[in-house]
Structure prediction request, 123 residues.
Amino acid sequence: MSALKQLSTVVFDCADPAALAAFYQKTTGWEITHSDQDFASLGGGTPVQLAFVRVDGYEAPSWPEGLKYMHLDFTVADLDAAAGALLDLGASRPDFQPGEGQWIVLTDPEGPPFCLTAAPTGD
Prediction:
């Protein structure tokens, strides 16, 4: 077996690929490269893209208890401003927030959590 060379795509199972791709497009500013009722994808000029595939009977993970699969972390300049903008786009902010203010946990419109972390500042 040859070694893996590069991660190309992070694929999310979901109920509505087009809607979830639209949410992440607004979140990242990346371009929607494909979108239909069963599959959608985003690219941002980087080697890794995000994709969303429709799964019949999809059940969202829950936070903080229950099923969890994985989550994305996004670095932002201002935690509170970014969280507010994402809430306006349809994200939710669960009551449980670990990390003592070092990051903010949000959930996307279909329920999977993602985190916002502050970009390092120069001294």
